[in-house]
Hints:
Blueprint: H1 2-26, H2 31-38, H3 40-43, H4 65-74, H5 90-100, H6 112-118, E1 120-121, E2 141-146, E3 151-156, E4 161-167, E5 177-178, E6 184-188, E7 193-198, E8 203-209, E9 213-219, E10 225-232, E11 235-240, E12 245-250, E13 255-261, E14 266-271, E15 276-281, E16 287-291, E17 298-301, E18 307-312, E19 321-326, E20 331-335, E21 348-352, E22 355-360, E23 367-372, E24 377-383, E25 391-392, E26 399-403, E27 413-418, E28 423-429, E29 435-440, E30 446-451, E31 456-462, E32 468-474, E33 477-482, H7 483-487
Antiparallel strand pairs: 1-8, 2-3, 2-33, 3-4, 5-6, 6-7, 7-8, 9-10, 10-11, 11-12, 13-14, 14-15, 15-16, 17-18, 18-19, 19-20, 21-22, 22-23, 23-24, 25-26, 26-27, 27-28, 29-30, 30-31, 31-32
Helix pairs in contact: 2-5, 4-5
Amino acid sequence: MKALAWAWRLALAGALCAAGAELASAQGVDAGALYQQHCASCHGAQRTGGMGPALLPESLARLRKPEALKTITQGRAATQMPGFADKLDAAQIQALVGLVYTPVLPAPRWSDDDIRASREAMADAARLPAKPQWQADPMNLFVVVEGGDHHVSLLDGDRFEVIHRFASRYALHGGPKFTPEGRWVYFGSRDGWITKYDLWNLKVVAEVRAGLNMRNVAVSGDGRWVMAANYLPGNVVLFDADLKLVKRWDAGSRVSAVYDATPRKSFVVALKDVPELWELAWDGASLRRTRLDEPLDDFFFDQSYRHALGATRERADGSAGAQVVDLEQQRKVAELPIAGMPHLGSGITFAWNGSTVLASPNLKGGAIDVIDMKDWKAVKTIATPGPGFFMRSHEATPYAWTDSMMSPTAKDTLTIIDKRTLQPVASVREPGRTLAHIEFTKDGRYALASVWEDDGALVVYDAATLKEVKRLPMRKPVGKYNVWNKITRSEGTSH
Length: 495
């Protein structure tokens, strides 16, 4: 099955390359020569990145072609990316856009030696003060990823004021991960970079490039280990806390995701092209493989961390499914009765009627499915204005918030659901704009939402009255993460 999956992908990549070459030839433009002349010095001869980010289809998945054309034409403000409108004509720029969305063949490699050579230490962590060098509650700190200009803002969750703002790697992905005392945070970028940042001293400590296209990173519950999940090359890579390479496992597949399972002292890994779930001890000393009927695209855990709840998005008929995998028995134990395309990676759990339920947003259906985690049966389907990506809550609030950002008509609406009655009770809107990704303060009193636009904002709502209390301008704040909620594994946020 592995060989068939990768043979199919190579055939498709070859067809895309041929199509791109034919297009360039038909226009009389040698896109490859243009790239080597104008782009390779910053983005690498094989488009794997250098001073500039990687220009591979996998790395550009969230950048639409019109935006790529605009970037090549006009450049990117506050970066070293110049505009080429005065050097290239429209056909040449269009040919370059076609090229960067075409796979590189043969696929570029990234070896252990490449990983080690990429690592850079920027500061000696042992010499930095072991307490915050700023005045705020370090447990109520928000890390805000601003995708509009690739920066990170650190927000005081009591005063709602920015403490610090710094440039990040291009296109951070998968959410930052914190060590258990809340001091160190690790960021992962789409083009494979892991950045270790000291929140107390506001410094980048170290960086390493784990791969060429990375899905996400996980940090062990004791803060000693970091694991990266890569699409390209298809592998998982283990580092120590200082981002020194420990071990690599080739998966023969793109890797969908890796998450820490602290009660099990392990990392759990889903493979996108192979129906297996891996469990690796934190230190890499053991690997257990659970064979499944279908691959998992994303997943999360129940409270015991015995069960992984995963979604499959790429069935041949276009449908999706969801399943429960018992990590002890190493087998699927239930199908989850969820229609559409569940986004279980953003699911939440909460107490309801003497049981614990799972609620998951849906990428295709305008609904939230609620599942009883005792018997994995459906409790209720809650209608929403449109398909959504994120859902969030907090132990101290009776409400769960979900977006409809995948809907062309309702992307401006957040729906508030009463967790006691499982009924929508209110909504907030940002007319004509995308409103998404709720996160709560440490005490659950306030909910922060993103106006997901380049000239966007963080909007702070009173979580009881649902009224707006403050607004902070931000450059497309794609995600915000509260230190306390993450390190305590709040039931209302993804882990």
